[in-house]
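Example record

One chain of 761 residues, shown exactly as stored in the release files.
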Amino acid sequence: MTPELAAKPLTSYRKYWAQRFGPAPFLPMSRAEMDTQGWDQCDIILVTGDAYIDHPSFGMALVGRLLEAQGFRVGIISQPDWHSAEDFKRLGKPKLFFGITAGNMDSMVNRYTSDKKIRSDDAYTPHAAADRRPDRAVIVYAQRAREAFADVPLVIGSIEASLRRIAHYDYWSDKVRRSILPDSKADLLLFGNAERALVDLAHRLARGEKIGDIRDLRGTAFMVPHGWKPTPDWVEIDSRSVDMPGKIDAHPDPYAMEPEKKVGAGNTASAAATPGVHPVRLVSRADRLAERRTARAHTAVRLPSFEDVRDNPVLYAHASRTFHLESNPGNARALVQAHGEGASRRDVWLNPPPVPLTTEEMDHVFGLPYARAPHPTYAEARIPAWEMIRFSVNIMRGCFGGCTFCSITEHEGRIIQSRSEGSILRELEEIRDKTPGFTGVISDLGGPTANMYRLACKDKAIEQSCRRLSCVYPGICENLDTNHAPLISLYKKARALPGLKKVLISSGLRYDLAVKSPEYVKELVTHHVGGYLKIAPEHIEEGPLSKMMKPGIGSYDKFKQMFEKFSKEAGKEQYLIPYFIAAHPGTTNEDMLNLALWLKKNNFRLDQVQTFLPTPLAIATAMWHTEKNPLRKVTDTSESVSIVRSGRQRKLHKAFLRYHDPANWPILREALVAMGRADLIGPGKRHLVPPGQPGAGLHEPRKPWQNLPERRTTLATRRPLPAKPEKSPPLTRGTAAKAVAAKTQRPANVPRHPLSLRKGG
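Predicted structure tokens for this chain:
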């Protein structure tokens, strides 16, 4: 890592005095447990909307154990009763601060479907109970903690706080809401992967610093008086002068030569005096980039105010574009956004994103003494999210795909942070030796994506100066190292461990990267697919794909050929299960019709479909709200994006994906007639839906398999039945699919990976 981005290692801090108590079997959730540990007080209390599971895939366990390793006494208040402040007093008053989170998922995404209906279960709660967390949990928990102990500093974090750190469109209230900071009354917001900021903050508070004076931590946001600057030498620029209507900063030319402003002692007087001749100096790449970083390090970009983006969709789209252009830790500037008017006007100040963890630091974080089990107070209660990940291993974090509908980039960033091979293999051995119920099958070896392990820019200087929103769209960057050899080596060593019968890969596969390495695809298909493999083309038409920043369907076709070839060579009958999104910005009825025809041609029958859900800060959400495209310069006359808003049209787009369901035939017949495609209504193979009177399809008899209860999530619902040789199978809930599911031991009704909102790659 270059010196400009060097950060203090997590393991270099002098431990707090309470280290003498040693690690707890589980972080205490009651005063009785504190007494057992010999504690009279917690230094830090973490409040979470999830059940407490002491495993590194769950955020509270990870940061709790990290703070414990620094010597602090950490308690956890899990899923408190938020109707009063009493439950927030159960562990007493924390000495340093409250850490408030909603849990591994955004509370609104967790509680509501894309159609704004309340979900009937919660995968992160014992017995999957659906009523254990409030809407906008971070705000509610912070208010109750403040009521309980008014003088204790409040620090908020998690994906819910990260995605609401500036003014943002809120899908559930259908309006632009201000930053979560003034609503929660928090002293500090930690966004992204917050290990660095959290550890440094804890030690500084322990030394007696006031939280209101801590303003220099990367990855933090806070409220300040309007016009505040860290030091007088800081420069503030208006975001509209950067990108609208002017152009964004050009990429620095590391080989550029520029005139000297003064004639140095080594320059000849004749050269300086000769008309048209200018002394020049050669500027190395490192020096050029260092000069730019020095200037940017003391520059803040002022975004349009909350009131401006609330009232002006063009300014909202512009602010979204600016926000995402300032997201690379190597060159991001501080961002400022005013909230309020007149005397009450204050600024939300965002420091640049955190410096990614090194491999050694990742190993430290994942190697802490986790109990790798739910807290004993849950007894034998079933917690679906735990059942999903207890036999899986997280090998990396981050994603450089930049899909506009995904929240991984806004939260974890684009730079891949990978664990070492040795660290991962040790965790596999721990699962084998210590996890009850292990049968020899590892359910996943991945993370936000399956195959970005150790992938990075070939040149660190280029990486730190880059402002691209994706390393793989519209094509794979020539500076991206796509070598899958480290991942292949990891797979081979993992499956060679004694006691491991099968190591499956279930995280979202980025197939446009995979096809760059036939050896990787062969290893994957031959040894790590449990009958079916889920991938996410999302669509086949250029219109929606360009708004998603996803590759064309040609990449899918190429991967499919390789998948079938290597499956045949291995003597295995295996299937690809594609994900598709309905009603994404930029999608027309014609796009969905073409996708339905493609599905029918390829004999796919999707059991469950995903409808676009606008999450805060995502680029696709900005498209949804503004009908503008922030991927390009935004003006009043810039590109407009078609949006599917009405409930009936969203239902139609979902119906196209499930063209085979008789319940959808009436709305499809009506739409086909309106689109002038009545030729697709009929009894033949070339037709999309059969003929019949409007509404008749709703009363047509269902097949026995169609009477099975619906499942709302997407883990094991898109499953194949045997079909004719050399053809993709239909996706139904047949007996063959059940056999595949039994082999892979995959739960059927919990989110695939608790660390992300989107499951596709």
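Notes: Residues 245-274, 694-761 have pLDDT under 50 and may be disordered.
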